[in-house]
Structures are given as C-alpha cells and as structure tokens.
Amino acid sequence: MSSTGAAVATAAPVHAPILRTPAGGYQELFVPSGMGPIKVQVQWARRGGSAALYVLDGFRAPADHNQWTTDTDALRQFAGDNVTLVFPVGGHSSFYTDWYRPSSTNRQTTTYKWETFLTQELPAFLQQHGVSRTNNAIVGASMGGNAALTLAGHHRDQFKFAGSFSGFVHPTYPLWNEAMRVAMWDEGNFNLDDMWGPAKDPAWTRNDATVQAELLRGLPMYVWTGNGVPGPLDLPYGVGNTVNAMSLEAMATTATQMFRDRLTALGIAARVDIVNGTHNWPYWQQALATARPMILDALGVR
After folding, report:
1. Could you tell me the sign of the dihedral formed by the alpha carbons of 184, 185, 188, 189, in that order?
2. What is the H or E stretch that residue 237 is in?
3. Which residues of 192-209 are buried (b: 16+ CB within 10 A; e: fewer)?
4. Whether 187 is catalytic
5. Among 6, 78, 126, 294, which residue has the least CB neighbours within 10 Å?
6. Burial zone of 174 (CB within 10 Å; 0-12 exposed, 13-18 middle, 19+ buried)
7. Residue 166 bears catalytic tag
8. Would you tell me the crossing angle of helices 176-186 and 238-266 to the nearest 10 degrees?
9. In what order do the strands lie in the sheet with 159-165?
C-alpha cells in the first residue's frame, strides 16, 4: 500500500506513478518483502519518467524514516528532475546486505535480506508504478556507501551509476572486521558473525568494493570522503559528535584511498574526491549535489 500524509491507497499495476508528490515532498510506500513490509519514501519523477535513484541511509538508519529526507535537502535537490528518488527505510546496522541468519545477540527474529530487497523485491514493486528496473542509480552514505558500489557491481543490469560518500569501501582490510564488530555491537547489539561469517568467509570479499573493483569497470562513479578536518558545517553538532565524526572519517579516508589506488592499478575511471570534512550529513548533502549532474547524465534524464 502507499500513503501520502493520512491518505492510504492500494498499489495497483499502472504504467506511471499513481501520485505526483509536491516539490520537496515524498510518498510513503509499504513494500512486501521476505523481511516483512518495508517502508520506502518516494519522490516521483517530476515529469513521469521511469529512471530512479536509490538513496541508502547510514549506520544508524532509523525504523521510521530515511535520514536523507530529514537531515539533507536531497528531496529539494532533485525536485525538478525527471527521476524518481527512492529512500528505503530501516536496515539499522545491516550494511544493506543479505545476512546468513538473524543476529543471535539481540533477539532479532528476521534475517536481513537487503540485497534481495533492493535488487529484486523493490524493483519489481516499483515497476508496477512505472519505474524502470534497468535505468537506476544508487548512492549511499557511511555503511550505505560500500553497499552502493557492491550492489551496482553485482547488478550492472540494474544500476547505471554508483556513488559512495564516506563509505567503508574495503571491509576486508586486516583487523577492520574487528572495528565493524565493535561498531555493530555498539549500534544495536548486532553480531557480525551472523552477517558474513568469519573474516575468511567468501561473503566478505563479495561485499568489499575494493576487492570487487573489476566489476565496476565502465560504470560512472563518484566517491567522496572527507579527510577528518572539521569546519563550519560541524559547528551545530557540538564537540563530542565532531570528534567522533573525525575518527570515523579517518577510517573512511584510508579505505577510499585504497579503493582509488585499486581503480588506478586496474585502469578503471572514476571521480574520487578527498577533501576537508568529517563523517556528517552536511558533507554528504554537498557530495550528493556534486553527484547530481553525473547521475542525471548516466540515467539520460538531462
């Protein structure tokens, strides 16, 4: 079903989006999946076009909204464009991947199957509303950054562009699995081993954008990370949050440098920017604005 404000309507197969959202607004859809109904916030293409941009949340992904819709101006940025913005809701500490089993340390009852949702169930549902299954872009921040690249690499028939903003794009780097373990325990008592198994499990390399770089050959990409140096955009967040954002970005910077070097060694083209900034939404908003013309060009909706 779908809802806009208090209105609720049954989703039926059509050849174009059922509703037009106001500029800067969105419609909420509830999409069936193996994980149960998943909320998705959608801003329909301005002129009924079929192209779509999937926008993935960060590590703390709330259960009731995608933070891109509240913490950035992403909706306004694309309000006049002929591309549908798709904001999946949820996936807290999931890395937007298919897990082996539910987390055994926090009473999770459903196994995360986010790759299946984003590449099979959600595209099939959106197709009923006139959204193409083969002319999409995907971007993500933080945990969503690596996922955007790996999903695009493994599903080239679906995605025509990928963007990572402060993404941890090399999770198999030695001992980084332990950093992920600590972060996932801190953010919801999730058990890393239930996601990809032990560090030598093939799921780790499959979900590592740096290892899978060859799959990205020929795909337009924009990879952004800060260098951990704070600036005016950090002031509203206070000292404590800024210090944390600086340390997180240091890891993202290192990973991005390794990803960039891997692309260079393979002769794969991509735009990679490493500039002043920390692990925070105002910087990701700017990165999305930089990526916007590249996204529109890749989707052919200029």
Report:
1. positive
2. none
3. bbbbbeebeeeebebbbb
4. no
5. 6
6. exposed
7. no
8. 140
9. 7-9, 2-4, 27-31, 38-43, 84-88, 52-56, 136-141, 159-165, 221-226, 271-275
Secondary structure element (H or E) that encloses residue 1, with its range: none
Half-sphere exposure of 220 (CA within 13 A, CB side): 18
Phi–psi pair at 251, nearest 5 degrees: -65, -45
Q: Using the 8-state DSSP alphabet, how is residue 209 labeled?
A: T
pLDDT tens-digit map of 242-256: 778 788 888 899 999
User: Quick one: which H or E segment has residue 93?
Assistant: none
Which long-range CB contacts under 8 A does 32-37 form with residues at least 24 apart? 32/121, 32/125, 33/113, 33/116, 33/117, 33/121, 33/122, 34/113, 34/116, 34/117, 34/121, 35/110, 35/111, 35/112, 35/113, 35/114, 35/117, 36/110
List the beta bridge partners of residue 129: 14
**Alpha-carbon distances, residue 292 vs 80, 81, 159 (angstroms):** 12, 10, 15
142 carries an active-site annotation:
yes
Residue 11 predicted with pLDDT over 90: no
- Going by pLDDT thresholds of 50, 70 and 90, the confidence category of residue 6 is very low
- Check if the beta carbon of residue 174 is closer than 8 Å to that of residue 201: no
| pLDDT tens, residue by residue, 32-49 | 999 999 999 999 999 999
Query: Whole-prediction pTM value?
Result: 0.92
- List the catalytic residue out of 94, 142, 164, 166: 142
117 DSSP 8-state letter:
I
Dig out the tokens for 248 from the structure: 């997180």
Among candidates 141, 135, 138, which has minimal Cα distance to 149?
A: 138
Q: Are strands 27-31 and 2-4 parallel, antiparallel or unpaired?
A: antiparallel
Q: Is 4 strand, coil or helix? A: strand
Burial class (CB in 10 A: 0-12, 13-18, 19+), 63: exposed
